[in-house]
């Protein structure tokens, strides 16, 4: 989207933020993506490609910059595709490790997921641990306190959601994305040169 000034075109400035969702199968990662981006829930959703992403744009946050949020998810049978893991994790702004609050095994695998990611990605990123399926409170086996303790032990933040009942989905992920966006554009504006660079007609993606 470009605006005209006389005969010149002003370059659109797009800020890219990348979220990566990881965790055991049946923890609701893929349905969280669908709920967040498309506001739908599919009871038996099965991804058919090794990794995929969806995009959500925020066009009214700043007069100069637009936020484009990529949310990446992976297939459940991930072990067969570990050779492409660097592509999946590349330039991740935030990593979200999912577990099912009704399944202790998925909770026990969280730290392994974190270590696997950290071996591949040495760049700066934010880490979140996500307890899903709080609509099944009567079947809970992982307490909130356990979740907070695990997050603290791994320098992460912790929150709980329900993709099925749409609890804490949009406000939580929006808040995280917007905070990262404003930090990035504040850094950009602080470091802007005193003399404006020549106007370009290219489409600028800022990572």
Explain this structure:
It is a single chain. This protein is an alpha/beta fold. It is 30% helix and 27% strand. The protein has helices at residues 29-38, 85-89, 104-108, 110-120, 144-153, 170-190; strands spanning 3-5, 8-10, 13-23, 51-58, 65-74, 94-100, 126-132, 157-160, 204-206. The strands form 2 sheets. Strands 3, 4, 5, 6, 7, 8 and 9 form a 7-stranded mixed β-sheet that branches. The chain is globular. It starts with a strand and ends with a strand. 28% of the residues are buried. It holds the Pfam family Ras. Belongs to the small GTPase superfamily. Rab family.
Main features:
Rab GTPase, disordered N terminus, 207 residues, nucleotide-binding, GTP binding, Small_GTPase_Rab, alpha/beta, single chain, 7-stranded mixed beta sheet, GTPase activity
Task: Please outline what is shown here.
The chain has 207 residues and is α/β, with parallel strands linked by helices. It has helices spanning 29-38, 85-89, 104-108, 110-120, 144-153, 170-190, and strands at residues 3-5, 8-10, 13-23, 51-58, 65-74, 94-100, 126-132, 157-160, 204-206.
**Span between N and C termini?**
19 Å
Report the helical percentage.
25-40%
Class computed from helices, strands and strand pairing: alpha/beta
* Overall pLDDT metric: 83
How many DSSP-defined strands?
A: 9
Number of helices: 6
Detail the poorly predicted runs. 1-9, 197-207
Q: Let me know the largest β-sheet.
A: 7 strands, mixed
Q: Any idea what the shape is? A: globular
Rounded to the nearest angstrom, the radius of gyration is 19 Å
Q: Classify the beta-strand content into a percent band.
A: 25-35%
Pfam families: Ras
GO molecular function, one term: GTP binding
InterPro entries: P-loop_NTPase, Small_GTPase, Small_GTPase_Rab
Keywords: GTP-binding, Nucleotide-binding
């Amino acid at each position: 989207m470009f605006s005209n000034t006389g005969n010149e075109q002003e370059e659109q400035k797009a800020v890219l933020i990348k979220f990566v969702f990881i965790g055991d199968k049946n923890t609701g990662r893929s349905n969280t993506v669908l709920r967040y981006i498309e506001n739908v829930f599919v009871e038996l959703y099965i991804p058919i490609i090794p990794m995929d992403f969806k995009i959500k744009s925020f066009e009214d946050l700043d007069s100069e910059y637009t936020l484009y949020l990529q949310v990446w998810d992976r297939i459940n049978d991930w072990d067969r595709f570990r050779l492409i893991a660097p592509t999946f994790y590349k330039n991740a702004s935030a990593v979200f490790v999912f577990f099912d609050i009704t399944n202790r095994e998925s909770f026990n695998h969280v730290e392994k997921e974190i270590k696997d990611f950290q071996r591949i990605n040495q760049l700066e990123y934010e880490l979140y641990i996500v307890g899903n399926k709080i609509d099944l409170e009567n079947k809970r086996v992982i307490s909130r306190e356990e979740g907070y303790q695990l997050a603290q032990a791994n320098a992460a933040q912790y929150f709980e959601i329900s993709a099925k009942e749409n609890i804490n989905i949009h406000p939580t992920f929006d808040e995280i994305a917007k905070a990262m966006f404003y930090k990035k554009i504040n850094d950009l504006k602080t470091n802007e040169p005193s003399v404006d660079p020549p106007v370009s007609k290219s489409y600028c993606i800022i990572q």
